[in-house]
Amino acid sequence: MASGGFSKPDDGSVAPGLAWSLAAVLGLGASGGDLAAQEPDCGDRTALRVVVLNEAEMTRARNATVIVRWTHPERTWRPVRQDVETVGSLVVCAPRNATEATLWAEFRDGSSEEAVVALGGGTVHDVTLTLRRERRSTGRLMGRVRDAMTDDPVVAAAVAVSTRLRSTETNRQGDFALSGVPVGTQRLEVRHLGYAPLSYVVDVSAGLTTEVEIGMVPDPVEMEPIVATVLRVRRLELQGFYDRRHWGELAGTGTFYTAEDVDRRRPVEISHMIADESGIRLQCNLRRSDCRLVNTRQSSGVTGACTLTFYIDGLPTRGIALDDAVRPSEIAGIEIYKGLGSGPAEFPPSRCGLVAVWTK
């Protein structure tokens, strides 16, 4: 993962994050104007012209965030997040070999339904995402389906909720997502040829994502299927923590801790827990009155100390020690990136690495 964006796809097209950023700039020129006037400059690639509306006033939603996930039968890109700022719209150029886009909008406690767009070369699609701010009656299910015997991903498994007409299939990593699932107790059904069908009752919470880990049993092996569920923290969900954790762990570019991990370790200071990471150490003066976390794998000129950059709830900490700013009991999540090329696009690049802390 490159800093400030994403690595260039192997098909020679512009990287998804870079294409998103360039196209978003084009969209900023049409504030208050007709979206049709925004002419995308995507060459022979597909373009999406996206408008985000507030449901109550049906006006452009300012400062909303749009999330887009590009997919291909043999590949899924990491989701990209982009703020529409004061315009309420933007233009997105698709990767050259993507065949489908799934996108939705978020703002504070509001979110839109997912829109799924089939992509074709050189075409332009107008997409309207409407933020719903009333009390939510739906939630979201995300999960992974694996073989309970081998732990290999189960590809193209059919996943559905019994109360919904719409279903989905798992991708090459065995991942799936279902949005707009009615709140309450639902029956999740998973089927794949060669495996015993699974039917599992899961509780869906309003406005939250429930994660489901499923182990399917090869038919006719005599054993019970394996299912585990976790309810995501709303703040981390909105900030994209779970998406970054999924792709960061998959690519090996980051280390991630939740409040449960911190409670289990019970560190006196959060810097002590971070310093346990390989390549990171706590460097203090002789009186131990001034300590800082440094990346020992990076060099910083004469001193050799490369100090990590810290963010709390998305804002940089300047002149304030991390341990003075937040206590371990206040933390909902931690992201640790150790190199220049490992940080996500949501944060400015840092040569020494960075740590993002999210509070409860």
What does this structure look like?
This protein is mostly beta strands and 360 residues long. Mean pLDDT is 77; it is low at 1-37. It has 6 helices and 24 strands. Strands 2, 3, 4, 6, 7 and 8 form a 6-stranded antiparallel β-sheet that branches. The protein has a 5-stranded mixed β-sheet with strand order 18-23-24-21-22. Strands 13-10-16-17 form a 4-stranded mixed β-sheet, with no helix packed on it. The protein folds into 3 domains: 16-131, Carboxypeptidase-like, regulatory domain (Immunoglobulin-like, Sandwich); 138-232, Carboxypeptidase-like, regulatory domain (Immunoglobulin-like); 237-359, Ferric Hydroxamate Uptake Protein, Chain A, domain 1 (Beta Complex). The protein has helices at 16-27, 234-238, 241-251, 259-265, 270-275, 322-325; strands at 47-54, 65-72, 75-76, 80-83, 89-93, 100-107, 110-111, 115-118, 124-131, 138-147, 158-161, 167-169, 175-182, 184-191, 198-204, 209-216, 226-231, 255-258, 280-284, 291-295, 309-312, 315-316, 331-337, 354-359. The protein starts with 15 loop residues before the first helix and ends with a strand. The longest helix has 12 residues, at 16-27. The protein is globular. It is 12% helix and 38% strand.
Please name the CATH topology of the largest domain.
Ferric Hydroxamate Uptake Protein, Chain A, domain 1
Quick one: how many beta strands? 24
User: What average pLDDT do the residues reach?
Assistant: 77
Q: Which band does the percent of strand residues land in?
A: 35-45%
How far apart the termini lie comes to 28 Å
Main sheet record: 6 strands, antiparallel
Second CATH tier, the architecture of the largest domain: Beta Complex
Provide the structure class.
mainly beta
Spans where pLDDT lies below 50 across 5 or more residues: 1-37
Rg? 22 Å
The CATH class assignment of the largest domain is: Mainly Beta
The proportion of residues forming helix, as a percent range, comes to 10-25%
Q: List the total number of helices.
A: 6
CATH homologous superfamily assignment of the largest domain: TonB-dependent receptor, plug domain
Order of helical and strand elements = HEEEEEEEEEEEEEEEEEHHEHHEEEEHEE
Shape: globular
How many domains comprise the coordinates? Answer: 3
